[in-house]
Amino acid sequence: MERDLFRILVVSDTHGRGDGLKEAIRLARPFDHLIHCGDTEGREREIATEAGCPCTIVRGNNDYFSTLPEDAVVELSGFRIFVTHGHQYGVSMTTEYLREEAKAERCRIACFGHTHRPYLDQSDPELTVLNPGSLSFPRQEGREPTYLVIEVDRRGRLHFLQNHIGRRRL
């Protein structure tokens, strides 16, 4: 049976720990692509194996000696997506530099990590900016491990589902 949705699992800041990632993968299935916004701490091969699908993984500020790219642009289901960890764009203070770079790359979605806090801003009709939060060391109130799922429906509309491990939040 063919699905009506293209699904992308977006995670970040797993910091070498696998339990939260395994649970996010289990809860988010089925999905067609995994995006990891950095700080894998050397687990990128295991992440790709566990995902069992194509992956886009970038280097974070704690990915010492990594050969992963700092930024990536991937086109999925007709949408260009900018992926970065974000520390080099100052995302702890502002997302403005990240937005400028994503727009220069003609992207519709910008994904980042680094802050360990979930973030979703759809105020700009040309660019959605998101951070899935952290599966290992969350920093937002309640400190629940978080991830995000992007869905593209059969009409080409985007849907963003912010999720906490153990319960689903829309």
What does this structure look like?
β5, α3 and β6 form a beta-alpha-beta unit. The chain has a six-stranded mixed sheet, with helices on one face. Strands 4-5-6-8-7 form a five-stranded mixed sheet, covered by helices on one side. The chain is globular, with a radius of gyration of 14 Å. 16% of the residues lie in helices and 34% in strands. It is α/β, with parallel strands linked by helices. It has three helices and eleven strands. The model has no long low-confidence stretch (mean pLDDT 94). It has helices at 19-28, 44-51, 96-104; strands spanning 6-11, 33-36, 55-57, 71-76, 79-84, 109-111, 118-124, 127-132, 146-152, 158-164, 167-168.
Provide keyphrases for this structure.
alpha/beta; 11 strands
Question: What distance separates the N and C termini?
Answer: 26 Å
Low-confidence stretches: none
Biggest sheet strand order reads 3-2-1-9-10-11
Oligomer category: single chain
- Major β-sheet profile: 6 strands, mixed
Rounded Rg? 14 Å
Strand content: 25-35%
Summarize the structure.
This protein is an alpha/beta fold.
Write the layout of secondary structure elements.
Layout: E1 6-11, H1 19-28, E2 33-36, H2 44-51, E3 55-57, E4 71-76, E5 79-84, H3 96-104, E6 109-111, E7 118-124, E8 127-132, E9 146-152, E10 158-164, E11 167-168
Parallel strand pairs: 1-2, 2-3, 5-6, 6-8
Antiparallel strand pairs: 1-9, 4-5, 7-8, 9-10, 10-11
